[in-house]
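Look at one record.

>
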Amino acid sequence: MKERAALIDRTSRNDFVTYGMVIAAFVIVQILSSMGVLTNQLQGLLVPLCVYAIMAVSLNLVVGILGELSIGHAGFMCVGAFVSALFSNQVGGGMPSLLRFIIAILLGGIFAGIFGFLIGVPVLRLNGDYLAIVTLAFGEIIKNIINAVYIGIDGRGLHASLTSANKLVDAETGVILINGPQGITGTPRDSSFLIGILLLLVSLVIALNLTHSRDGRAIMSIRDNHIAAESVGINITKYKLTAFTLSAVIAGFAGALYAHNLATLTATSARFGYNMSIMFLVFVVLGGIGNFRGGIIAAVLLTLIPELLRFLSNYRMLIYAIILIVMMIISWNPASRAFMEKHRLGGHLFKKKNTAGKEGE
């Protein structure tokens, strides 16, 4: 009983350290900004840093907690971005900007979660490389559909086309909502660093509470040994869908924050493509699989470093690939595992892997 109480205290303490780290970062940035130390370039990166940190939390639920490989998370972010931007553009000045933005964020998360559920039902029956390939295909399909579709609205209702926006709506009363490759223009710039930090804290609360809950323990048991989990009556499909859908919801939040930081939202490969999904995966791997705090730190560092070292920006994907290879070698090397366990550097992850391997044997 005492050991369990000590474990709960240690878990709560670690969670509060994570929350405190985020709040401290916000305070430090505000102090530096008031002193005029931050350049315009760094100030422009504050909202994207929050977006990428939220995406690291989202993907860690699937890769770290569920133990499945997803490389199409930019697709869920894309859904959240476009749904929220459509809502904000249609409502316009009809309601207070803060209320409009909150509703837009919620709608982005809800619709991304719906897509996550619909995709998860057939996809989560797969494992390993097959799951990664299908999630990659989903992300690319979503991006290409949005690039190809033209949607408008007028007095006769909603209209869609896959060819062009010409004669799609009435010239006097109609409005083009999505203009194919040109995307959505005129989205209110409601995003701010404060809202980004609050959204990051909300995402952390959701993810950490799920991880420490009974459902979270069931999800991690599936990750460690799905055969043993199923043998004791754990509903594999239910808990996989729970983690995957909740991860998609958080990605939708990030997409809404991202969309309201841009004057023009387009579904380009640079914003929602394969490379973006790989970048999120690098954040998770570099920060420590299953480590939400480490993922946030990795997202911040790997976003800031290329901007501060502009001469290396052309080699960013090469650097990410090297980081992934090095981390994989370190995590599976027996000598490095022993060193990490001895010095408690991510040792809990290696112990879980070892325990799962022994149970499988």
